[in-house]
Design goal:
By secondary structure, the protein is α+β, with helices and mostly antiparallel strands. The chain folds into two domains: 30-164, PurM-like, N-terminal domain (60s Ribosomal Protein L30, Chain: A, 2-Layer Sandwich); 179-204 and 217-337, Phosphoribosyl-aminoimidazole Synthetase, Chain A, domain 2. The protein has eight helices and 14 strands. It has helices at 26-35, 84-102, 121-137, 188-203, 217-222, 228-236, 250-261, 280-285, and strands at residues 45-47, 55-56, 62-72, 105-115, 141-149, 154-164, 179-183, 242-245, 263-268, 292-296, 305-306, 309-319, 327-331, 334-337. Helix 3 links the parallel strand 4 and strand 5 (141-149). The longest helix is centred in the N-terminal third of the chain and has 19 residues, at 84-102. It is globular, with a radius of gyration of 21 Å. The two termini are 13 Å apart.
């Protein structure tokens, strides 16, 4: 989510001096990718890379959960500030986060990548470094995709997960009286994005030095961690009534739950787990935290942490009435309507 950045036309490109050699063409890249993907002949991926189609086989009593996301240069990342490892990581993290919000177990990924011919094959390899590392961490098989040339880099990712039939976590099951919870901290990614902009405009620091395990805002933005374990925990215990992942900002994503469930919500500002490097505005509207926002009955014994990630109650669900705002923010100065000011395409 790079609202302030047009696609750069003056970014230095890495020259590919042997772009016409067979070792650097599409077939060579496909061979490179296939060598790095475990043989998909067991589990629910019956046939992976190498044929016209992949073959997936659902287990008895399971549904497939399918999600897709685009990552486009100048909109979701910027070549001048985002290392290719981060671009690959973020591209698949977005889909994994969607599966986490449904309580689904990841099964397979399909990745279509397009890059300008002037970008080196090394850039593409590093893109897959980041993507495959996160995929393998969540036992997700890269089962197919496509490679192409394009004027700007973009990636189209399809993620397939599995969930017991009828047990997926949905946005539509929040009810008045339910409590509202969030995992992790909020606003860190937005703060990291602001810092990346500063780095690009002033000191020229290399963002590639930010590690995936760091809790700094820049690292949280470059290498978000999808909450797969937390989503599975909530689904298996039947504790969450509704859930969504925080990709577009708390105010915008909570609005989705309110609309799908026919309810309103109240957030308490003092309860928000704001990242130490972020502001209240970034926590409310910043986006790309990829935490889980979920509801649960008042009687539910929601733990303070799930699989090592803190969980915090931040508000409650209320009935929808003609006078009440869809979302209300409660502060020490009183309550006020909270508009959905997170990211929206075409807004």
């Amino acid at each position: 989510m790079l609202r302030f950045l047009p696609y750069p036309t003056d970014v230095p490109r890495i020259a590919n001096k042997t772009s016409n050699a067979p070792t650097n063409g599409e077939l060579a890249l496909i061979r490179m990718i296939r060598r790095r993907v475990p043989n998909a002949s067991r589990g629910q991926v019956r046939l992976g890379i190498g044929d016209d189609c992949a073959l997936l086989r659902p287990r008895k009593g399971e549904d497939f959960a399918v999600t897709t996301d685009l990552s486009i240069a100048g909109r979701h990342f910027w070549l001048a500030t985002h290392p290719p490892q981060s671009i690959g990581h973020r591209a698949i993290a977005r889909g994994l986060s969607d599966l986490a919000a449904m309580g689904a177990r990841p099964v397979a990924a399909f990745v279509s990548l397009a890059v300008p011919p002037e970008l080196s094959s090394e850039w593409t390899r590093h893109f897959y470094d980041g993507l495959l590392k996160l995929a393998q961490a969540h036992n997700t098989t890269l089962a197919g995709g496509d490679l192409s040339e394009a004027p700007i880099p973009l990636a189209d990712i399809v993620l397939v997960g599995a969930v017991p039939a009828g047990k997926a976590l949905l946005r539509s099951r929040a009810r008045p009286g339910h409590a509202l919870y969030v995992t992790g901290t909020l606003g860190g990614s937005s703060a990291g994005l602001s810092r990346l902009k500063e780095m690009a405009e002033s000191d020229g620091q290399d963002a590639s030095q930010q590690g995936a395990g760091s809790s700094s805002p820049v690292a949280l933005h470059l290498y978000p961690q999808p909450r797969i374990a937390q989503g599975l925990w909530l689904r298996k215990r039947g504790m969450a009534t509704a859930a969504i992942d925080l990709s577009d900002g708390l105010s915008t994503d909570l609005m989705h739950i309110c609309e799908e469930s026919g309810v309103t919500a109240e957030i308490e500002a003092d309860l928000l787990p704001i990242h130490p490097g972020a502001t209240l505005e970034q926590a409310l509207h910043g986006g790309e935290d990829y935490e889980l926002l979920f509801t649960a009955p008042e009687s539910a014994r929601v733990p303070r942490a799930i699989a090592g990630v803190p969980v915090k109650r931040i508000g409650r669900i209320l009935p929808r009435t003609g006078k009440r705002a869809a979302i209300t923010l409660k502060t020490a100065q009183g309550s006020k309507p909270l508009k959905p000011l997170g990211w929206q395409h075409f807004a």
